[in-house]
Amino acid sequence: MKFNISLRGSSKKRTKEVKEEKAPPLPLATPPDSPTKASTFSWSSSTVAAAEQESTYPSLLSTFSKASLSEPPASAAAPPPFSFHSDQKLSAIVVGAGFAGLSAAIGLARQGWSVTIVERSGGPSKHGDCLTIGANAAKIIRRWGGGEVFDEMWQISAQGGAWLMKDEKGETLRTEDLRDFPALYGAPVLQGHRGQFLGLLGLEARLNLVNIRLSMEVVRYIDSKKSPGLVVFDGKHEETLFADVIVVADGFNSKSRELIVDSSRPTFLRPQPSTSTLDTSFTSPPPTSNYSVHRGLVRSEAIRANPRTAYLLDGCSRTWLGDDCHLTMTPLDKGRQISFNFIHSDFRGGPATLDWRQRRPISEVLELIEGWDDTLVEAIKTFGTYLHWAKTEEDAAERWTSAGGKIILIGDAVHPLPPSSFQGGSQAIEDGASLAVCLALSGGREGVPRALRAFESMRKPRVAEALEAGKQQRSLWHTWRSTGRLASHLDLLIAKFYHYDAELQTLAMFERTVQRGDEPSWAMAEGRKSEVLAKLQVDKHPPLGELFEQGKPRPRR
Ligand SMILES: Cc1cc2nc3c(=O)[nH]c(=O)nc-3n(C[C@H](O)[C@H](O)[C@H](O)COP(=O)(O)OP(=O)(O)OC[C@H]3O[C@@H](n4cnc5c(N)ncnc54)[C@H](O)[C@@H]3O)c2cc1C
Q1: Do both 423 and 507 map to the same domain?
Q2: Which of 374, 480, 502, 544 is the most exposed place for a label (fewest CB within 10 A)?
């Protein structure tokens, strides 16, 4: 079979011969209920269109015209040819353009792989509100290109330099000084709008010549030991694609997890017939954590205009700690928007959902925080509506790799994390970066199963720790009064994750992880490690400079 991996809108085309295999396709548990209409909308032009419409998108996006984005920008030099595997580039198909999928795609493209992403939706999702990217993931993003995407993410992040923990009445119990983090951990914490961050990661992928094919839903996998494949559906036609490796990053509600590694796990959502694939409803109850989230996002004009609430737009995050609950408020997008997340035990709220369009009246939240800090209550009144988001919790999947050894699941698809870990996006980015290093170190096509096995055994303990830390953080914040803890003990527990460098750790551990597995005598080819390290450009990124306003006193409230 012959297929083209083409660069959308570009005259450059790579044609590749791939032998078709007779491996039986894995069946879909349920047929694709709601095919997405194929779209001509490309990642880059849709992001720019959104920027023009909302005028809240980052400046990097608006500096590119639609015309220039239909071609990779001139500055996007093709990655250097891959030298040690074979003459022909290795190819990867990535399923899902979320944080895990985009990071894997960028990491592999930087190592010289030819990468295609297939994404079900028609463009970068605007859903979500505040997403935290820890210093552990931000340091990886800083290495990309000349650091432009990192700079843009920082520009739209909350830059107040402090995270305040408060009691319900608003008295400050403890302040975490985030200004120290770049010096301590090599990067700041980025807190911004999920959709805007995703748009920037998509742009970085395009700059690395990743082919992003939108409105393509994966409906079947071909778990071949030789050349794994998948079938995508664009609403009209099915198409079969093959590659040297398939990286599946289809998120929390992964259908692929059920198909490839975990047939006993039910899919919790399904697309509604006759509407877009983003409409969702439960087909079976998700595993409950006994906690759920009330969350909202609003433009901040009313909060800024009120002298009693304007202080909330100073760029700092604030968390109010209540009885078995906590509420975090963070200004986003240079203070133009503000979000809140209220995590509490399920019994306090009405029915929870995973559909971003099921808005509920804000009066329900106001009832729950009656008697709390009156400036917080005034601010919450400006939201109008909120979303009661179902907060699920489950352990990581036991297996991440297919029986054929060349398809792997990463990110939320195999290890959804609780919001109180503040590491969902960060662990997804670490996964993508670490997987790319494993595949680059492992030794060509034949090395793919080895790379996936080593990746799985290195990443499982790390994400299990993040899951545990999230539960501990919640417990610490929710019980501080009943357990008589001192306010000075209300630490941001997750900060212990920020030292970690997923790319360098993978480089250091890969060979011995393989040897401790089922290949005790395997040795990495001479020079391979330094070649991979050089492509990571660890030392080449520019110095961080002064990120925070100098001499600014810590906020008191
Ligand atoms: C709608 C939404 C909003 C969120 N909002 C927040 C937030 O505000 N704050 C926060 O901290 N965390 C939020 N999260 C969680 C956070 O984004 C995740 O923890 C993190 O991004 C994990 O990344 P991922 O790449 O593994 O999965 P995701 O980011 O969920 O990405 C999965 C991608 O796969 C695509 N996909 C799914 N099935 C298929 C298929 N069959 N074929 C092709 N593509 C497919 C999806 O469209 C999606 O783009 C949100 C998650 C979602 C889904």
Answers
A1: yes
A2: 374
